[in-house]
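Submission checklist for the structure archive. All mandatory fields must be present; incomplete records are returned to the submitter.

[x] Identifier: GCN5-related N-acetyltransferase
[x] Organism: Thermoanaerobacterium xylanolyticum
[x] Residue count: 125
[x] Sequence attached
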Amino acid sequence: MFKIKFASEEDLKYIKKIADYFKLSLLVDLNKCINMIATDEKPFGFITIKVDDDTAYIIGHAVLPEYQMKGYGTMLLKVALNNVYDFGIKKACVKNSISDDFYIGNHFKKSDNGLYVDIEELLKK
């Protein structure tokens, strides 16, 4: 059964494994970030967010190919941003994304420093 949850210490190894599959460099201490993982019978996707001041920076977000194009990436994004919004964070940003089209399709706007979204506006859609 599909679910999205906060990643446990044990789940961090799956996040690293999925990131490695996509050759994503997670250049942060995962223990100091908000990590959520999508699982079915096994973990298949994750999102990692680092909060700095009043912005949630998405520093890792991936879904294994066999689970793509089914809405799981969008669900991970919205669940994670809903959680940071509950803590008063109003903006989210993605820098150096290889998937700009995905984020633009999810209402992020281009700027000189990456892609940004007003979380409240995103959650209304």
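[x] Structure attached
Curator remark: Strands lie at 3-6, 34-39, 43-52, 55-63, 91-94, 109-111, 114-118. The chain has four helices and seven strands.
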